[in-house]
Amino acid sequence: MTTTKAAQKRAQAKVEYNAFLAGCPSRQLLDRISDKWVVLILCALGGDNSPGQPGAAHADAPKAMRYSELSRLLAGVSQKMLTQTLRSLEHDGLLTRTVTPTVPVTVSYELTSLGLSLHHMTRGLRNWAQTHMAEVLANRENYNSRTS
């Protein structure tokens, strides 16, 4: 009887991932990373948090941010949602959480190399949404007037 080593199993599983199949674990990952708060957190930690025109200037360098900075930057996110999203990103290895024993305790978050690779894609998605929003709104209005 032959034994498959863990690395061999991972390599075999990697070949077999297919998001079109119902049981594929990559579907869960796609569900997670397509969340608006995930995209915005990755953009914030990646340095894409300037309010200027999308693509007008290159993004700042990735940086660590405190929880309170993220909370202020992400208008409309609840404390519960921000905490859950940060935990899930840490769980997936997309960011690291660093606790500094100060008074009060300082907690900061920073992208890992895996998170940074995803950030490059989410930055494009965010820029596309901001660039094409007027066109999408016009199409929605046109559609609603035709179907009413």
Oligomer: single chain
The number of strands is: 3
Termini distance?
67 Å
Main β-sheet description:
3 strands, antiparallel
Shape: flat
Strand content: 5-15%
The structural class is mainly alpha
Tell me the series of helices and strands, N- to C-terminal. HHHEHHEEH
Contiguous runs where pLDDT drops below 50 for at least 5 residues:
53-57
Average pLDDT reading: 88
Nutshell version of this structure?
The protein is mostly helical. It has helices spanning 6-16, 26-33, 36-45, 67-73, 79-91, 113-147; strands at 65-66, 95-100, 106-111.
Structure write-up:
By secondary structure, this protein is mainly alpha-helical. It has six helices and three strands, in the order H-H-H-E-H-H-E-E-H. Strands 1-3-2 form a three-stranded antiparallel beta sheet. Residues 53-57 have low confidence and may be disordered.
Which key terms come to mind for this protein?
148 residues, mainly alpha, three-stranded antiparallel β-sheet, 6 helices
Summarize the topology.
Layout: H1 6-16, H2 26-33, H3 36-45, E1 65-66, H4 67-73, H5 79-91, E2 95-100, E3 106-111, H6 113-147
